[in-house]
Amino acid sequence: MTEKMLKFVHLEQKYPQKREAAERRTDFDEIYASFEPDAAADQAGRCSQCGVPFCQAHCPLYNNIPDWLRLTTEGRMEEAYAISAATNNLPEITGRICPQDRLCEGNCVIEQSTHGAVTIGSVEKYITDTAFENGWVKAPVPGQENGLSVGIIGGGPAGMAAAEQLRLKGYDVHIYDRYDRMGGLLVYGIPAFKLEKHIVERRIRLLEEAGIVMHTNFEVGRDASLEELRRKHDSVLIATGVYKARDLKVPGVGLKNIYPALEYLTTSNRQGMGDAVPAYDDGTLNAKDKHVVVVGGGDTAMDCVRTAVRQGARSVKCLYRRDRANMPGSQREVANAEEEGVEFVWLTNPEAFVGDDKVNGVRAVKMRLGAPDAGGRQSPEVIEGSSYTMEADMAILALGFEPEDLPSLFEAPELGVSRWGTVKIDFRSMMTNLDGVFAAGDIARGASLVVWAIRDGRDAADRIDEYLLARKEAAA
Length: 476
Ligand SMILES: Cc1cc2nc3c(=O)[nH]c(=O)nc-3n(C[C@H](O)[C@H](O)[C@H](O)COP(=O)(O)OP(=O)(O)OC[C@H]3O[C@@H](n4cnc5c(N)ncnc54)[C@H](O)[C@@H]3O)c2cc1C
Ligand code: SF4
Known about the structure:
alpha/beta, five-stranded parallel sheet, binds flavin-adenine dinucleotide, binds iron/sulfur cluster
C-alpha cells in the first residue's frame, strides 16, 4: 500500500468525533435544532432595520425580510407569516436550503460590518413551521373558478409555485410528472438531511386539497405528446428541470461502481422514504464500508460526499480541478463536509479509472491555475508527471446537468431551444415560440436554485393569466 493509500484509514477509527457530528445531523438540525421562540425573536431582533435592505434586494423573491423580522421580534407570528407567504410559495423550504450566504444573508449590513448576518433563512423557516403548527397555512382554494385550464409539465418547485398561483386565480390546474411523487429535485435530488421529505409532502397535500390534479407516472413524450396537452388545455407550462448528467471522457469510466450523482442521490432518497430499493439493499448503490471518490466541486458533489459519510463510507474524497476559492459550491457546505470527515483534494483531476471489472482506483493528476479564460476565470492546467492513484471502490460523477433534448422527447421538433438546449422564451412574456406554451425554472434558465424556480413559476403564472385573459377578451 502506498503512503497516500495509508491515509485512507477508516473514518470511524480516525474521526470518531466527526462521525458523531454527521450522525447528529441525520435529521435536519444544522442551525435550527433548538430554534425556540425566544431564540427566533432574539435573532430577528438583531436586524438593525437599516432602511437599505440589501438582504431584500438580493433575495430572488424580493421577500420583505425587514418587516417579517420586526414582526417576529414583536411576537406577531401570524402577520409575519402572511408577509412571508405573500411573495414565496415555499418559505419553509427556501428557509432550509437557499444558499443564504450568497443571497440575503451574504448582503445583510450586519454581515458587512463583520458582526455576522442575521440568520434570515432560519427565521423564515421558523415562521412557516409555526404557521403550519397553528393551522394558518391554508390550501390555495380560489374564490371563483374561471373555466380555463392549464397543464403543467413537471411538479418541481417551478411547477408547484405556478400551480398554486394559477389555482388561486381560478384555473383548473393539472400537473404531469414522470416520477411517482411530485416535488422534483426537492424529493429525489436534495438529501433528507438538508430537506426533510415530509416538509415537501405537506405542501403537495395542500395543492391537492385545493383541487390541483396530480398526474404522477405520466411522462410527456411517452404518455402524451406536447401537442396532445396543448389540445387538452388552454395553456401549457413546461417546467421539466434539467436532468442530463455531464459525462467525463476518460479511460475506465465504464467500469462498474461508477455512478452519476443523481442516480446515487435518488437511490438514497428513495431508501430514506421507505421504498424498496434493491440496488441499495444489495450494497451496489450504498457507500457503506467503501472508499468513495466524488468528482466535482458544486453543491451536488457536496450532497454526495455528505450522503456517503452518512451511509458509513470508509473514506470520502472530493476531487476538484480548481482550488477552494474557485469552486462553485457553497463554502458553508464545504465546511460542513470537512467537519464530517470528507477530504477535499483540490487542484486534482481524474485521468482514468482503474480496475478489471469494478473500479478499484482513480488515477489523478495535479493541476495548477493558469491564465484567465474569456470569462476571466483561471483555467486549470495539468502538471506533467504528477499522476498518482488513489484507492476507490465507488466513484460518483457530479459534473453538473444539462437539458434533455425536449423537442425530440416531446415529439415537438418545432419547439425552440437555445444552443445549450434550454427552452427559449421571450423574457417578457415567458412564452416559447409555440403559442400558449410557456417555460419556467431550470429548463428555461439552466441549472439554478429552488428560489429562482419559485420566482419563475410565479412569474409564469402571471404571464399565462395575462395571455389567457387577453385571448378571452379578444374572443368576446
Ligand atoms: C443534488 C442537487 C441538490 C440541490 N440542492 C439545492 C439546494 O440545496 N438549494 C437550492 O436552492 N437548489 C438546489 N438544487 C437546485 C434545485 O433543486 C433546482 O434548481 C430546482 O429544483 C429546479 O426546479 P424545477 O422545478 O425547474 O425542476 P425540478 O425540480 O428538476 O423538477 C422538474 C420535474 O419535471 C419532471 N419531468 C421532467 N421531464 C418530464 C417529462 N417528460 N414528463 C413529465 N415530467 C417530467 C421531473 O420528474 C421533475 O419532477 C440542487 C440540485 C441538485 C441536483
Ligand atoms: S427565499 Fe432565500 S434568499 Fe430569499 S429571504 Fe428566504 S432564504 Fe433568503
